Amino acid sequence: MIRVRGLSWLIGLSLLAGCDDAPRMERGVDDCEATLMALRVAVVSADGARVRGATVTATNLTSNASVSGVTDGDGVTTAVNERLAPSPVRVVATAGSKVSPASRVEWVCDTCNCVPEPAELTLELSP
């Protein structure tokens, strides 16, 4: 019985401690976005028409890691993202035997994310 009273007393004291006017620290919210920042890449033919189904490949110039994506009905892909950062990447598009000249993209990073510079690319396939 003495143990039960002692335990009750201890629980009651801990509940009272939560009722004082002492300042409390709120748990911080993570300001970093969970979404990966992506590079918008449009692929066009020599005459300027958007190319559906072109493969866009970006390669990190330091690690040689790469990512590829296929353009949608608007000739655009956002498959190239900050997973390749912080090193510069080389981006090229292919469709059949047609290839675009390579473009270089730099990633500017802060404590949370990396954003591509430029934010958008238009790659033109060879005639």
Write up this protein:
- 13% of the residues lie in helices and 34% in strands.
- It contains 1 helix and 9 strands; from the N terminus they run αβββββββββ.
- It is elongated and about 80 Å long.
- The chain has one helix spanning 2-17, and strands at residues 40-44, 55-60, 66-70, 76-77, 89-95, 98-99, 103-109, 114-117, 120-124.
- The strands form 2 sheets. Strands 2, 3, 5, 6, 7 and 8 form a 6-stranded antiparallel β-sheet that branches. It has a 3-stranded mixed β-sheet with strand order 4-1-9, with no helix packed on it.
- With 127 residues, it is mainly beta.
A few lines on this structure:
The protein has one helix at residues 2-17, and strands at 40-44, 55-60, 66-70, 76-77, 89-95, 98-99, 103-109, 114-117, 120-124. The protein is mainly β and 127 residues long.
Properties at a glance:
127 residues, 3-stranded mixed sheet, 6-stranded antiparallel sheet, mainly beta
Instruction: Supply the number of helical segments.
Output: 1
What's the β-strand tally? 9
Q: Given the helix and strand composition, which structural class is it?
A: mainly beta
Low-confidence stretches: none
Average pLDDT across residues?
84
Beta strand %: 25-35%
H/E element order: HEEEEEEEEE
Rounded radius of gyration (Å): 27 Å
Cα shape: elongated
End-to-end separation: 92 Å
Largest sheet: 6 strands, antiparallel
Helix percentage range: 10-25%
